[in-house]
Amino acid sequence: MENSEPKESFEAFTKSFFYGTRSDLSFKFLSDLSPEAASSFLQDLFRQVVDAIDTNDLTRLKLQMVAGQVAGYREQKNFDYDQGPFCLPRAPLSDLKISLLTSSGHFVENDDPRPLGVENMTQAEAESRVFDFLKEEPFLSEIPFDTDVSRLHVRHGGYDIRAAQKDPNVSFPFEPLKALKAEGLFSDLTPAAYSFVGACSQKRLLKKTLPGWVERMKAAKADAVVLVPV
Amino acid sequence: MSVGHIARTFEAAEIATVVIAVKSFETRMRMMALPRVLLTPELMGRPLGNPFDKARQKNILEQALALLETATQNGTILDLA
What we know:
The structure holds two protein chains of two kinds.
Chain A: H1 10-15, H2 35-55, H3 59-73, E1 97-102, E2 106-108, H4 123-128, H5 130-133, E3 141-144, E4 152-154, H6 162-166, H7 174-182, E5 188-189, E6 192-195, H8 202-219, E7 224-228
Parallel strand pairs in A: 1-5, 1-6, 1-7
Antiparallel strand pairs in A: 2-4, 3-6
Chain B: H1 2-12, E1 16-22, H2 26-31, E2 36-40, H3 54-70, E3 76-79
Parallel strand pairs in B: 1-2, 2-3
Protein backbone atom coordinates (compact mmCIF):
# COMPACT_ATOMS: atom_id res chain seq x y z
CA MET A 1 0.00 0.00 0.00
CA GLU A 2 1.38 3.38 -0.98
CA ASN A 3 2.14 5.88 1.80
CA SER A 4 0.22 9.08 1.02
CA GLU A 5 2.03 11.22 3.63
CA PRO A 6 4.26 13.89 2.08
CA LYS A 7 7.95 13.10 2.27
CA GLU A 8 10.19 15.43 4.26
CA SER A 9 13.26 16.74 2.49
CA PHE A 10 16.66 16.47 4.15
CA GLU A 11 16.87 20.27 4.16
CA ALA A 12 13.54 20.52 5.98
CA PHE A 13 14.85 17.93 8.46
CA THR A 14 17.96 20.03 9.27
CA LYS A 15 15.92 23.25 9.46
CA SER A 16 13.57 21.63 11.98
CA PHE A 17 16.31 21.72 14.64
CA PHE A 18 16.17 25.54 14.61
CA TYR A 19 13.09 26.20 16.76
CA GLY A 20 11.09 23.81 14.61
CA THR A 21 9.47 20.45 15.20
CA ARG A 22 12.80 18.97 16.38
CA SER A 23 14.04 22.10 18.14
CA ASP A 24 17.38 21.36 19.81
CA LEU A 25 19.56 24.27 20.84
CA SER A 26 22.76 22.20 20.69
CA PHE A 27 22.03 21.25 17.10
CA LYS A 28 20.21 24.33 15.78
CA PHE A 29 23.38 25.13 13.78
CA LEU A 30 22.38 22.34 11.39
CA SER A 31 20.00 24.83 9.77
CA ASP A 32 22.99 27.01 8.82
CA LEU A 33 24.86 24.21 7.05
CA SER A 34 24.40 23.28 3.40
CA PRO A 35 22.65 19.93 2.93
CA GLU A 36 26.00 18.45 1.90
CA ALA A 37 27.79 19.79 4.96
CA ALA A 38 24.97 18.71 7.29
CA SER A 39 24.97 15.24 5.76
CA SER A 40 28.72 14.93 6.18
CA PHE A 41 28.56 16.20 9.76
CA LEU A 42 25.87 13.69 10.77
CA GLN A 43 27.64 10.78 9.11
CA ASP A 44 30.89 11.64 10.91
CA LEU A 45 29.01 12.13 14.17
CA PHE A 46 27.50 8.65 13.94
CA ARG A 47 30.97 7.18 13.37
CA GLN A 48 32.32 9.06 16.36
CA VAL A 49 29.47 7.78 18.56
CA VAL A 50 30.44 4.19 17.86
CA ASP A 51 34.16 4.91 18.30
CA ALA A 52 33.41 6.64 21.62
CA ILE A 53 31.50 3.58 22.81
CA ASP A 54 34.30 1.26 21.72
CA THR A 55 37.07 3.33 23.28
CA ASN A 56 35.17 4.79 26.24
CA ASP A 57 36.68 8.13 25.20
CA LEU A 58 34.44 11.09 24.33
CA THR A 59 37.23 13.43 23.21
CA ARG A 60 36.82 13.03 19.46
CA LEU A 61 33.03 13.00 19.68
CA LYS A 62 33.16 16.34 21.49
CA LEU A 63 35.57 17.78 18.92
CA GLN A 64 33.23 16.64 16.15
CA MET A 65 30.38 18.52 17.84
CA VAL A 66 32.52 21.63 18.27
CA ALA A 67 33.59 21.47 14.60
CA GLY A 68 29.93 21.32 13.53
CA GLN A 69 29.01 24.30 15.67
CA VAL A 70 32.01 26.27 14.39
CA ALA A 71 30.98 25.54 10.78
CA GLY A 72 27.38 26.51 11.49
CA TYR A 73 28.24 29.89 13.00
CA ARG A 74 31.10 30.80 10.67
CA GLU A 75 28.92 32.75 8.25
CA GLN A 76 26.99 34.78 10.81
CA LYS A 77 28.31 38.30 10.31
CA ASN A 78 25.91 40.85 11.74
CA PHE A 79 28.28 43.55 12.93
CA ASP A 80 31.56 44.45 11.29
CA TYR A 81 33.91 47.05 12.78
CA ASP A 82 37.33 48.00 11.40
CA GLN A 83 38.63 48.99 14.80
CA GLY A 84 37.63 49.09 18.43
CA PRO A 85 38.47 50.73 21.74
CA PHE A 86 41.24 49.45 23.98
CA CYS A 87 41.66 50.42 27.63
CA LEU A 88 44.73 49.43 29.60
CA PRO A 89 43.89 48.41 33.19
CA ARG A 90 44.82 51.10 35.70
CA ALA A 91 47.16 48.76 37.68
CA PRO A 92 48.70 45.27 37.66
CA LEU A 93 46.21 42.41 37.89
CA SER A 94 47.06 41.80 41.54
CA ASP A 95 45.71 45.28 42.38
CA LEU A 96 42.52 45.17 40.31
CA LYS A 97 38.89 44.88 41.36
CA ILE A 98 37.22 42.39 39.02
CA SER A 99 33.59 41.87 38.08
CA LEU A 100 31.73 39.23 36.09
CA LEU A 101 28.98 39.76 33.54
CA THR A 102 27.48 36.96 31.46
CA SER A 103 24.73 36.67 28.87
CA SER A 104 23.80 33.25 30.24
CA GLY A 105 20.45 34.20 31.79
CA HIS A 106 21.25 33.41 35.44
CA PHE A 107 19.32 34.93 38.32
CA VAL A 108 18.83 34.32 42.03
CA GLU A 109 15.88 32.45 43.47
CA ASN A 110 13.02 34.86 44.32
CA ASP A 111 14.56 37.50 42.04
CA ASP A 112 13.15 36.32 38.73
CA PRO A 113 13.37 39.15 36.17
CA ARG A 114 9.93 38.10 34.84
CA PRO A 115 10.80 38.30 31.13
CA LEU A 116 8.03 39.54 28.85
CA GLY A 117 5.99 40.13 32.01
CA VAL A 118 5.60 36.41 32.62
CA GLU A 119 5.76 35.04 36.17
CA ASN A 120 7.84 31.85 36.55
CA MET A 121 8.47 31.46 32.83
CA THR A 122 9.64 27.96 31.97
CA GLN A 123 12.65 27.17 29.79
CA ALA A 124 10.28 25.68 27.22
CA GLU A 125 8.35 28.96 26.99
CA ALA A 126 11.60 30.95 26.75
CA GLU A 127 12.60 28.80 23.77
CA SER A 128 9.21 29.08 22.09
CA ARG A 129 9.22 32.88 22.55
CA VAL A 130 12.86 33.57 21.67
CA PHE A 131 11.84 35.87 18.81
CA ASP A 132 9.85 37.98 21.29
CA PHE A 133 12.96 38.23 23.47
CA LEU A 134 14.88 39.57 20.46
CA LYS A 135 12.60 42.64 20.42
CA GLU A 136 13.00 43.45 24.10
CA GLU A 137 15.45 45.50 26.14
CA PRO A 138 17.56 43.19 28.35
CA PHE A 139 17.32 43.16 32.15
CA LEU A 140 20.53 42.86 34.17
CA SER A 141 20.21 40.59 37.21
CA GLU A 142 22.52 41.19 40.16
CA ILE A 143 23.92 38.06 41.77
CA PRO A 144 25.86 38.72 44.99
CA PHE A 145 29.10 36.76 45.04
CA ASP A 146 28.13 35.21 48.37
CA THR A 147 25.01 33.62 46.86
CA ASP A 148 24.77 29.89 47.54
CA VAL A 149 25.00 27.99 44.27
CA SER A 150 21.77 26.13 45.11
CA ARG A 151 19.86 29.43 44.82
CA LEU A 152 20.96 30.12 41.25
CA HIS A 153 18.53 29.61 38.39
CA VAL A 154 19.06 29.81 34.64
CA ARG A 155 16.64 30.36 31.77
CA HIS A 156 17.55 31.34 28.21
CA GLY A 157 15.77 30.60 24.97
CA GLY A 158 18.92 30.79 22.85
CA TYR A 159 21.15 27.97 24.06
CA ASP A 160 21.08 24.50 25.59
CA ILE A 161 21.05 25.25 29.33
CA ARG A 162 21.40 21.65 30.54
CA ALA A 163 25.07 21.99 31.50
CA ALA A 164 24.42 25.34 33.20
CA GLN A 165 21.58 23.76 35.19
CA LYS A 166 23.97 21.10 36.46
CA ASP A 167 26.78 23.53 37.23
CA PRO A 168 26.31 27.30 36.70
CA ASN A 169 30.07 27.78 36.51
CA VAL A 170 30.17 26.46 32.93
CA SER A 171 28.79 29.80 31.75
CA PHE A 172 28.64 31.90 34.94
CA PRO A 173 32.04 31.17 36.55
CA PHE A 174 31.51 32.89 39.88
CA GLU A 175 32.92 30.11 42.06
CA PRO A 176 36.30 29.77 40.27
CA LEU A 177 36.52 33.56 40.26
CA LYS A 178 36.08 33.57 44.05
CA ALA A 179 38.74 30.86 44.35
CA LEU A 180 41.23 32.93 42.34
CA LYS A 181 40.50 35.97 44.47
CA ALA A 182 41.19 33.90 47.60
CA GLU A 183 44.54 32.93 46.07
CA GLY A 184 45.40 36.61 45.58
CA LEU A 185 45.48 36.61 41.78
CA PHE A 186 43.61 39.92 41.91
CA SER A 187 42.73 42.33 44.67
CA ASP A 188 38.96 42.21 45.01
CA LEU A 189 35.59 41.40 43.48
CA THR A 190 32.64 43.73 43.05
CA PRO A 191 29.87 42.91 45.57
CA ALA A 192 27.80 41.24 42.87
CA ALA A 193 28.20 39.54 39.52
CA TYR A 194 25.71 40.21 36.71
CA SER A 195 23.79 38.20 34.16
CA PHE A 196 21.18 38.81 31.48
CA VAL A 197 19.59 37.01 28.53
CA GLY A 198 21.79 37.74 25.54
CA ALA A 199 18.97 37.09 23.11
CA CYS A 200 17.65 40.66 23.18
CA SER A 201 17.20 43.74 21.01
CA GLN A 202 20.71 44.80 20.00
CA LYS A 203 19.45 48.27 19.07
CA ARG A 204 17.90 48.83 22.50
CA LEU A 205 20.94 47.37 24.23
CA LEU A 206 23.23 49.80 22.42
CA LYS A 207 21.10 52.94 22.50
CA LYS A 208 19.18 52.63 25.74
CA THR A 209 20.58 50.03 28.12
CA LEU A 210 24.36 50.15 28.07
CA PRO A 211 24.91 53.66 29.47
CA GLY A 212 23.15 52.55 32.65
CA TRP A 213 25.23 49.36 32.85
CA VAL A 214 28.42 51.42 32.57
CA GLU A 215 27.24 53.53 35.52
CA ARG A 216 26.51 50.39 37.55
CA MET A 217 30.00 49.06 36.90
CA LYS A 218 31.52 52.38 37.87
CA ALA A 219 29.39 52.52 41.04
CA ALA A 220 30.70 49.03 41.91
CA LYS A 221 34.24 50.35 41.26
CA ALA A 222 35.06 47.60 38.78
CA ASP A 223 38.49 48.02 37.20
CA ALA A 224 37.96 45.15 34.78
CA VAL A 225 35.13 42.83 33.81
CA VAL A 226 35.16 39.19 32.71
CA LEU A 227 32.48 38.88 30.02
CA VAL A 228 31.02 35.53 29.01
CA PRO A 229 28.72 35.16 25.98
CA VAL A 230 26.81 31.92 25.41
CA MET B 1 26.76 39.98 19.71
CA SER B 2 25.35 41.39 22.96
CA VAL B 3 28.57 40.78 24.84
CA GLY B 4 30.59 42.26 21.99
CA HIS B 5 28.63 45.50 22.28
CA ILE B 6 29.14 45.48 26.04
CA ALA B 7 32.91 44.98 25.69
CA ARG B 8 33.21 47.86 23.24
CA THR B 9 31.07 50.18 25.38
CA PHE B 10 32.86 49.35 28.64
CA GLU B 11 36.29 49.82 27.07
CA ALA B 12 35.25 53.19 25.67
CA ALA B 13 34.23 54.09 29.24
CA GLU B 14 37.70 53.01 30.48
CA ILE B 15 36.59 49.75 32.07
CA ALA B 16 38.90 46.99 30.83
CA THR B 17 37.30 43.75 29.61
CA VAL B 18 38.19 40.23 28.65
CA VAL B 19 35.75 37.92 26.86
CA ILE B 20 35.66 34.13 27.31
CA ALA B 21 33.87 32.63 24.32
CA VAL B 22 33.49 29.28 22.62
CA LYS B 23 35.37 28.76 19.36
CA SER B 24 32.06 28.88 17.46
CA PHE B 25 31.88 32.62 18.15
CA GLU B 26 35.29 33.36 16.66
CA THR B 27 33.98 35.05 13.52
CA ARG B 28 31.66 37.28 15.53
CA MET B 29 34.38 38.18 17.99
CA ARG B 30 36.87 39.07 15.28
CA MET B 31 34.37 41.14 13.30
CA MET B 32 33.41 43.16 16.38
CA ALA B 33 37.04 44.25 16.96
CA LEU B 34 37.09 43.39 20.66
CA PRO B 35 40.04 44.19 22.92
CA ARG B 36 40.78 40.78 24.52
CA VAL B 37 39.19 37.43 23.73
CA LEU B 38 39.94 33.93 24.98
CA LEU B 39 38.49 31.25 22.67
CA THR B 40 37.81 27.82 24.17
CA PRO B 41 37.32 24.53 22.24
CA GLU B 42 34.08 23.83 24.09
CA LEU B 43 30.46 23.24 23.15
CA MET B 44 28.10 26.17 23.01
CA GLY B 45 26.63 26.98 26.39
CA ARG B 46 29.74 25.66 28.17
CA PRO B 47 32.52 28.18 27.48
CA LEU B 48 34.26 27.17 30.72
CA GLY B 49 34.14 23.46 29.89
CA ASN B 50 32.26 20.52 31.31
CA PRO B 51 30.11 20.75 34.46
CA PHE B 52 32.04 20.31 37.73
CA ASP B 53 35.47 20.37 36.05
CA LYS B 54 36.73 22.89 38.60
CA ALA B 55 40.38 22.68 37.59
CA ARG B 56 39.55 23.41 33.95
CA GLN B 57 37.20 26.27 34.84
CA LYS B 58 39.84 27.86 37.02
CA ASN B 59 42.56 27.40 34.42
CA ILE B 60 40.45 29.06 31.71
CA LEU B 61 39.71 32.00 33.98
CA GLU B 62 43.38 32.38 34.88
CA GLN B 63 44.34 32.50 31.21
CA ALA B 64 41.60 35.04 30.51
CA LEU B 65 42.64 37.29 33.39
CA ALA B 66 46.27 37.09 32.27
CA LEU B 67 45.22 38.82 29.04
CA LEU B 68 44.46 41.92 31.12
CA GLU B 69 48.22 42.16 31.74
CA THR B 70 49.64 40.87 28.47
CA ALA B 71 47.40 42.38 25.78
CA THR B 72 48.76 45.62 24.37
CA GLN B 73 46.26 46.35 21.63
CA ASN B 74 42.71 45.76 20.46
CA GLY B 75 42.12 42.46 18.73
CA THR B 76 44.17 40.31 21.06
CA ILE B 77 42.79 36.77 20.73
CA LEU B 78 44.12 33.71 22.52
CA ASP B 79 42.80 30.49 20.96
CA LEU B 80 42.96 27.43 23.23
CA ALA B 81 41.84 25.09 20.42
